[in-house]
Amino acid sequence: GLSNVGSHYNTGNGRFTAPVAGRYAFTFSVMTHDSGSNPTQDWIAFRINGSIQHYYLAHKTGSYHTRFTAVGILNLAASDYVEAYVGESGTSPGWQGSGREYNIFSGHLVG
Fold first, then answer.
1. Comparing 8 with 74, which gets the higher pLDDT?
2. What are phi and psi for residue 31, nearest 5 degrees?
3. Looking at the predicted structure, is the pLDDT value of residue 2 above 80?
4. Using 50, 70 and 90 to split pLDDT, how confident is the model at 36?
5. Is the pLDDT of residue 10 over 90?
6. Per-residue DSSP letter, 3
7. Torsion-angle region of 94 (φ positive above 0: left; ψ -120 to 50: alpha; else: beta)
8. CA atoms lying within 13 Å on the CB side of residue 52
9. Three-state DSSP class for 6?
10. Residue 103's closest CA among 33, 38, 51, 34?
């Protein structure tokens, strides 16, 4: 199920805002559309306050979906926000929607 303990995740803008300074664990998983026969470079990233921190890249060809999963430990100050970001180059038709059956984003304080 879905949970938002403490209401630190904003469903309107997709941002998790750190309530206190510390180390936070994040998980981000999305699925692409198939790209047909066109080669494509797809990537996802964690952004802190709008700045990309880590890229996760993949090259794909063929008529199939690609699953991206990223895990990261991020050091945050109180009120920093983290968002999951997706991008692509080439001619891929995009990402497989926003339904929670395809995509997940989670974050929690480690310490």
1. 74
2. -125, 135
3. no
4. low
5. no
6. -
7. left
8. 9
9. helix
10. 33
Residues whose CB is less than 8 angstroms from the CB of residue 71 and which lie 6 or more positions away in sequence, other chains included: 25, 26, 27, 28
pTM equals 0.78
How many angstroms separate the CA atoms of 37 and 62, rounded? 5
Rounded to whole angstroms, what are the CA distances from 57 to 24, 44, 45? 22, 7, 9
pLDDT at 93: 41
Residue 110 DSSP SS3: coil
Per-residue pLDDT of 50-109, as tens digits, reads: 898 877 877 666 666 777 788 999 999 999 999 888 776 654 444 444 555 567 888 999
- Residue 37's nearest CA partner among 86, 97, 90 is 90
DSSP conformation letters of 25-83:
EEEEEEEBPP-TT--EEEEEEEEETTEEEEEEEEEE-SSS--EEEEEEEEEE-TT-EEE
